[in-house]
Write a structure and sequence with these properties.
This protein is of the alpha+beta class and 181 residues long. It has four helices and four strands, in the order H-E-H-E-H-E-H-E.
Length: 181
């Protein structure tokens, strides 16, 4: 008896659900038109941007003013050993050239961007990149640049210079870059 009552109740619930889902609204049964796109070319030829070529000024990549580029002939990147933020002796000439440039151009600002390879956690790499940028900033300050001219930031592993997982790629990503503003 209990089994019959359960099957009758479930049949009643199922039929109520089916009736509740139906609607008395008729669907529009008109067929869908298949339209294709047509290409319209402007009168007189040319492109369809609406801007004449003479109206657009060319964009120059790189600095046009030599004073914006930083010291002439000096590298813009120095590299670090694995898991280190010690400025290597071979980078001293680069650091000295940038320090001389900043000392002679007091209005110039420099952003030092510290980066790491992808090994290590995100937080660790951000901290290591910051230590690398700060080490370069301190070296510049010791050589005559003022602290107000220099900003040290870290990108950690977020902006690799070279994609890859080999030691050559890792070595190129362990760096500090000099960017003048």
């Amino acid at each position: 008896m209990k089994r019959i009552l359960i099957s009758l109740a479930s049949s009643l619930v199922l039929s109520a659900a089916v009736v509740g889902c139906s609607s008395g609204v008729k669907l529009n049964e008109t067929p869908v038109e298949n339209r294709t796109a047509t290409v319209v070319t402007p009168a007189g030829g040319g492109d369809s941007t609406g801007v004449a070529a003479r109206d657009v000024a060319p964009v120059l990549i790189g600095a046009t003013d030599p004073s914006l580029a930083g010291p002439t002939g000096a590298a813009r990147v120095i590299y670090f050993d694995y898991d280190s933020f010690v400025v290597k002796p071979e980078a001293q000439g680069t650091v000295e050239a940038h320090a001389r440039f900043l000392s002679a151009n007091k209005a110039r600002k420099l952003v030092i961007e510290g980066s790491t390879d992808e090994r290590g956690g995100r937080e660790y790499n951000l901290a290591l990149g910051q230590k690398r940028a700060e080490a370069v900033r301190r070296a510049l300050a010791l050589l005559g640049a003022t602290d107000s001219q220099i900003e040290a930031v870290s990108f950690g592993e977020e902006k690799p210079a070279v994609a890859g997982t080999g030691e050559d790629a890792f070595a190129k990503n362990r760096r500090a870059e000099f960017n003048y503003r």
